[in-house]
Specification:
Elements (H helix, E strand, L loop, with lengths): L7 E5 L3 H14 L3 E5 L2 H10 L5 E5 L7 H10 L8 E5 L5 H9 L4 E4 L4 H12 L1
Parallel strand pairs: 1-2, 1-3, 3-4, 4-5
Helix pairs in contact: 2-3
Length: 128
């Protein structure tokens, strides 16, 4: 379990129970530092304050600034340009939305409800 010690993961979701569920799931399987943001703007603020984030798990459907807009802003910044982003969504399940996710720089696109093993395997892949 400790082979991921030192990695920083940012999870972004506007619902606190989703953040709690994600954090709990990841902590059961990995020893990583988990940062949380409850909006796109807060996610950007966190990346400005916290250098060296290794992976971002980003909800697509959020008020004010959705996941696509957030990812676009993260990808134009030098500091976060190369950080892999995994999108999570319950609503945007069509190929069109998945394509848009990849166009704005997503490394992956997962659907809610989350398959625990799939998510942990994806995170492991990107932290290697």
């Amino acid at each position: 379990m400790n082979r991921y010690t030192g990695f920083k993961l940012l999870i972004v979701d506007d619902h606190s129970h989703n953040l709690f569920t994600l954090r709990t799931l990841i902590e059961q399987h990995m020893d990583v530092s988990i940062l949380e943001a409850n909006s796109g703007q807060q996610a950007i603020d966190v990346t400005l304050q916290q250098p060296d984030i290794d992976l971002i798990i980003l909800d697509v459907q959020m008020p004010d600034m959705d996941g696509f807009q957030t990812a676009t802003m993260l990808k134009v910044r030098q500091r976060t340009r190369d950080v892999p982003i995994i999108f999570l969504t319950a609503a945007y399940k069509t190929d069109e939305f998945q394509q848009k996710g990849y166009e704005v720089g997503a490394a992956d696109y997962l659907l809610k409800p989350i398959d625990d093993n799939q998510l942990i395997n994806k995170i492991s892949t990107y932290l290697h």
